[in-house]
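Submission checklist for the structure archive. All mandatory fields must be present; incomplete records are returned to the submitter.

[x] Identifier: Sugar ABC transporter permease
[x] Organism: Sinosporangium siamense
[x] Residue count: 298
[x] Sequence attached
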Amino acid sequence: MRHGRRRFVAGFLALPLVMYAVLVLSPYAQAFYLALTDWRGVSARAEFVGLDNFARLLDDPQMWAGLRNNGLMLLVIPVVTILLALLLAALLTLGRSGRGVRGAGAYRVVYFFPQLLSVAVIGVLWQFVYTPNNGLLNGVLEAFGIAGRSWLADPALALWAVMAVVVWSSTGFYVVLFCAAMQSIPREILEAAHVDGAGRFTVFRTIVLPLVRENIQVAYIYLGIGALDGFALVQIMTVGPGGPDNATEVLGLGLYRNAFTYGQFGYASALGVVLFFLTLTLAVLVMRTSRRERIEVV
């Protein structure tokens, strides 16, 4: 009976496992192999060069510029997005006496709306917002007597402008995620805390945050992965792209440029391997450092 059940389960799992190996594991293995070659992408010939591509990375100023910018994005984007999403979710879900606010569903739809737009549409839309002469942002600033800026052409502002777009487009999804997590908290616990005289900030800090910690952990991992990428918006919005003066250079853009502009697929694969291990390291560190005993509410 047991052997028949095992064969039954193995039969169902065989095809998905084969497809996973072919469609997921095989491309990873090919990328690791290509990172050790000088493949140009247009012929079957690929000479094995060992770790030469990785040695080149150490002397590549654009790689270091991309790593620096990705590091800044990793520090800013997840923290700001999670804080904003937690604040908005708490206002919509908890409200006064833990009962939420009227029209919370409509607010969630408005916050979630950027998720319905593709990255390309968001990038083009915000290009018009940041336009120096007649853009929406400068128009609003000038209406208040503040001089407009060339947001995407100023090396000191370009990356911050891109990060603001990432936060704007991502916050709504995590508002919905955190709202769902907060709504799963029994109302009796929140009401009891309010009856005992606890303020809303105290309730949020001592009750709500511990119970949604796992959701925050997941959010940080996904936002961190997005911050280590950042390719699409930088490609669409910035001059160069990656400019001005490498101010918005990111690792994903360097990978794309080396592969499809310079035809150096082996070197681009090495950059992709570095990006893969950076992302994997981030996920492992976040999961290990934030791992605590699970809190269950009955």
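[x] Structure attached
Curator remark: The chain has two domains: 1-25, 35-289. The chain is about 70% helix and 0% strand.
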